[in-house]
Amino acid sequence: MQRVIVVGGGLVGCAIAMYLARRGVDVTIYERNADPRRTTTARPSINLTLCTRGLYALEQLGLREDLQRLFVPLYGRMIHASDGGIRYQRYTDNGDAIYCVSRRQLAAAMLDAVERRGIPIQFDSRVVSVEPERAAVVLRDAAGGEGRDEAACIVAADGSSSTIRHQLQRRDRFDYSQRFFARGYKELRIEAQRARGCLDPEALHIWPRREFMALAFPNNDGSFTCSAHLPFSGEHSFERLGDAGAVRQLFARAFPDLADLMPSAGEEFVAQTPNSMVTIRCRPWAVGRVLLLGDAAHALLPSYGQGANAGLEDCQILDACLDEYAPDWARAFSEFEARRRPDTDAMASLCERHFVELSEDVDDVAFQARCRLESELHARFGDRFMPLYSMITFSLMPYATAVRRAALQRQLLDELMRESRIEPCIADDAFVCRVSARIARIERELEKAS
Ligand SMILES: Cc1cc2nc3c(=O)[nH]c(=O)nc-3n(C[C@H](O)[C@H](O)[C@H](O)COP(=O)(O)OP(=O)(O)OC[C@H]3O[C@@H](n4cnc5c(N)ncnc54)[C@H](O)[C@@H]3O)c2cc1C
User: Fold this and answer.
1) Distance CA 215, CA 433 (A)
2) Taking the alpha carbons of 355, 243, 43, 189 in that order, is the dihedral positive or negative?
3) Which of 12, 134, 234, 313 has the highest CB neighbour count under 10 A?
4) From the CB of 398, is ligand 1 less than 6 Å away?
5) 208 CB under 6 A from ligand 1?
6) Residue 400: which of 410, 392, 412 has the closest Cα?
7) From the CB of 13, is ligand 1 less than 6 Å away?
8) Ligand 1 contacts CB of residue 163 (under 6 A)
9) Does the beta carbon of 167 lie inside 6 Å of ligand 1?
10) pLDDT tens per residue across span 83-114
11) Tell me, what's the pLDDT at 230?
12) Separation of 158 CA from ligand 1 center, angstroms?
């Protein structure tokens, strides 16, 4: 039985440890922080939305049923427009849902599952350096004591500020780029008794205001977590909102219905420093006997709600590579990188673009007409024409394929949007025939590219 070191006891570290243990690998997890289940913090947790990709991995690990109690299903977006109007956009006509979960609760449940499988987790054990050719790590405990460990290989799931990736960056021909988003966010709490009757608990709520926005995610206790997204500088920015009164004023003007639900938002807001969001791309992920995984390999902006989903999908794809190449770790790692990196690169670019859609386009009449046409075509042609959001969120289609297919579908949508009176034509035979022929062309182009 071979031994593998997993660095990082976050969602991805826990998931890959369980996948490896299923194969009979002897796994040890090193986590720099104390056990989060035994510590308390006043800060609200980030909420994640899990979709088909993340859920599929949890299902494979036999965790889906157990974790379901933590999930709140969301069937669509509720757009709170600046004119006071509220519009509901269902994700699909088939009742598909994404699942909202507190990242803290999910992380704790994953640690419980790891322990139930007898996988050792060493908390307060920070990896401070790595030797990729020997698969060795140097560790520092909370008291400053140092130790060393060595295994057959190392999976680095130590997040977007990965120590292991920093070490690899010093090597020749290691490419790395990081791009911070111009906006940051602060998390505010909406108590259950205030939210009840005012916010639909089965929707993601969005207040798009172009240069800034607010989002509200339901929790399983009826409360909501509000995420206020603002630029770091300029008008309506974190820099300008230095006191609770100014925050209250902006909220009352920009999101009056939301402001009513958060009487202490001003104080909560100024008590926090804004959190930044970053896109990270790097290569190679596989160096010697080390593999970067999850956010350590590819941090995504949260606009599409894909970071954790992508990290969990990484684990599932790596497991499939191990099915083919184990016990040749090096071959499995490089095959995994070759299959997976084009997808996460495509997703990184898409997430950067999608923030504009969330804060501007969702509230735009032309955008909504386009979405309606997309879902009409999806209803008429089924999986032959899928909206991009559905391909990313409700399928296991590789991200890069989804992005490529959406670009071709966009040309068709542009053509159709230029024609007037599309909706009455959808049932017309000649129209259906013409669109079907165009979709067949898209299918051929995709086949050629694959
Ligand atoms: C605001 C926001 C909203 C998001 N929304 C969504 C969403 O809706 N859906 C979604 O899928 N994703 C979302 N994400 C992304 C998601 O949170 C991350 O992609 C996911 O948590 C990454 O998991 P990870 O295990 O790779 O990294 P992390 O969760 O960062 O875990 C890394 C772990 O490694 C440990 N560690 C770090 N360095 C060391 C070291 N040197 N030694 C030992 N341990 C170390 C850390 O303490 C941590 O426990 C969101 C992110 C943000 C910021």
Assistant:
1) 41
2) negative
3) 12
4) no
5) no
6) 392
7) yes
8) yes
9) no
10) 899 999 899 988 999 999 999 999 999 999 99
11) 96
12) 8
Tell how far the Cα of 295 is from the centroid of ligand 1, in angstroms.
Answer: 6
Sign of the torsion angle spanned by Cα atoms 237, 241, 247, 249: negative
CA of 32 to the centre of ligand 1 (A): 13
pLDDT at 242 over 90: no
Question: Bridge partners of 4?
Answer: 27, 153
Task: Dump the DSSP string for 1-35.
Answer: --EEEEE--SHHHHHHHHHHHHTT-EEEEE-SS--
Q: Which of 275, 295, 301 to mutate to test the pocket of ligand 1 (most atoms within 8 A of CB)?
A: 295
Give, using CA atoms, the residue closest to atom 28 of ligand 1.
Answer: 159
Q: What is the mean pLDDT of the chain?
A: 93
Using DSSP's 3-state secondary structure scheme, residue 225 falls into strand
What is the residue-wise DSSP string for 232-276?
SSSTTSTTT--SHHHHHHHHHHH-HHHHTT-TTHHHHHHTSPPBP
Which residue's CA is the nearest one to ligand 1's atom 41? 127
pLDDT in tens, 145-201: 999 999 999 999 999 999 999 999 999 999 999 999 999 999 999 999 999 999 999
Q: Identify the CA nearest to 164 among candidates 154, 156, 173.
A: 156
Ligand 1: centre distance to CA 54 (Å): 14
- Which SS3 state, helix, strand or coil, does residue 128 take? strand
Burial 379-409 (b: 16+ CB within 10 A, else e): eeeeeebbbbbbbbbbeebbbbbbbbbbebb
Ligand 1 midpoint to CA 159 (Å): 5
What are the helix and strand counts (H, E) for the chain?
16, 20
Question: SS3 for 158?
Answer: coil
Q: Check if the beta carbon of residue 281 is closer than 8 Å to that of residue 165.
A: no
> Phi/psi of residue 342, each to 5°?
-60, -30
- Give every CB contact of residue 38 below 8 A, 6+ residues apart in sequence: none
pLDDT digits (tens, 9 = 90+) for 288-334: 999 999 999 999 999 999 999 999 999 999 999 999 999 999 999 99
